[in-house]
Design brief:
single chain, 279 residues, alpha/beta, Cobalt-precorrin-4 Transmethylase, domain 1, Methyltransferase, Cobalt-precorrin-4 Transmethylase, Domain 2, 3 domains, 5-stranded parallel beta sheet, 11 helices, 10 strands, binds S-adenosylmethionine
């Protein structure tokens, strides 16, 4: 371990066994840990079997905390930054600290680990080749509806965080703006005892939550399937069907070229769409 480094350390989002070996080692070796809630981090350290000087870094003191972290680095100390759960800076404090540390020329070393976005996505069974994360949903209906309107044509999977006391109201706004058939996956209590994935249309999910109030408890990641690709609308269904039919006898490239000649559409476009349709 070098001196004067800031380690940004991911910690478990529920299951304490998810701490990585490297995170454990780094937390044990640094001189001080900057934590979102020092009591919370103390419990993690107790579980790991050691103690360490802690300082608080939260939304309300981050600028001031950044200055004291810089002083520690300048004095030759190593500092770890953690949040209450998961990866620091992901809907959590840390941006101002990393900015100040980078500007002062010190190294920032990421120690990767749990993050609710990735944990949810990897088991949601939704497309993950492209996705966006938009933080927490706005707290009020008007803001949420405006937000959902803004993602109407979003083709990528959309991931947001939501709190348990707003989850039903958010699903209602989602159905009102994006339609009752919009496909949604809720990841609840991930890595914990009552981990649940609710998959289906937004109406299915609302009904299941209303039928079982346990489904309203805990922490949620909401994942919303993206809108159907607009590319599909740019060629006729007949042209795509023809390409697919020809591709039963010919290599897809040849089928697309032949269908393009016949229909006037671009062969690359037909090729891409037929490829997606086959998948
Ligand atoms: N930095 C964290 C991360 O890496 O995911 C996120 C911190 S943010 C303040 C807390 C929110 O993350 C929760 O309200 C919830 O939406 C989501 N979250 C955190 N842990 C979760 C879990 N175990 N299951 C589901 N969602 C979780």
């Amino acid at each position: 371990m070098h001196e004067n480094q800031l380690y940004v350390v991911a910690t478990p989002i529920g299951n304490l066994a998810d701490i990585t070996t490297r995170a454990h080692q780094v937390l044990e070796m640094v001189d001080i840990i900057a934590a979102e809630d020092t009591r919370h981090t103390k419990r993690l350290l107790n579980h790991l079997g050691f103690s360490k000087p802690l300082m608080a870094v939260h939304d309300h003191n981050e600028a001031h905390a950044a200055t004291s972290i810089l002083e520690k680095l300048q004095a030759g100390q190593n500092v770890a930054l953690v949040s209450d759960a998961g990866t620091p800076l992901i809907a959590d404090p840390g941006f101002h600290v990393t900015r100040a540390v980078a500007e002062a020329g010190f190294d920032i070393v990421p120690i990767p680990g749990p993050c609710a976005i990735i944990t949810g996505l990897c088991a949601a069974a939704l497309p993950t080749d492209r996705f966006i994360f938009d933080g927490f949903l706005p707290p009020k209906t008007s803001g949420r509806q405006q937000y959902f309107n803004g993602i109407k044509n979003e083709e990528r999977t959309v991931v947001v965080y939501e709190s348990p006391h707003r989850i039903l109201a958010s699903l209602k706004d989602l159905a009102a703006v994006l339609g009752e058939d919009k496909e949604v996956v809720l990841g609840r209590e991930l890595t914990k005892t009552f981990e649940t994935f609710l998959r289906g249309t937004v109406t299915d999910i609302q009904n299941r939550m209303l039928a079982d109030s346990n489904q309203l408890k805990g922490e949620f990641v909401m994942m919303i399937r993206g809108a159907a690709s607009k590319k599909k609308l740019e060629v006729s269904q007949e042209a795509l069907d023809l390409t697919l039919l020809l591709s039963e006898e010919l290599p897809l490239k040849k089928a697309a070229a032949l269908a393009a000649k016949h229909t006037g559409y671009k062969k690359n476009q037909l090729y891409q769409l037929a490829l997606e349709a086959r998948e």
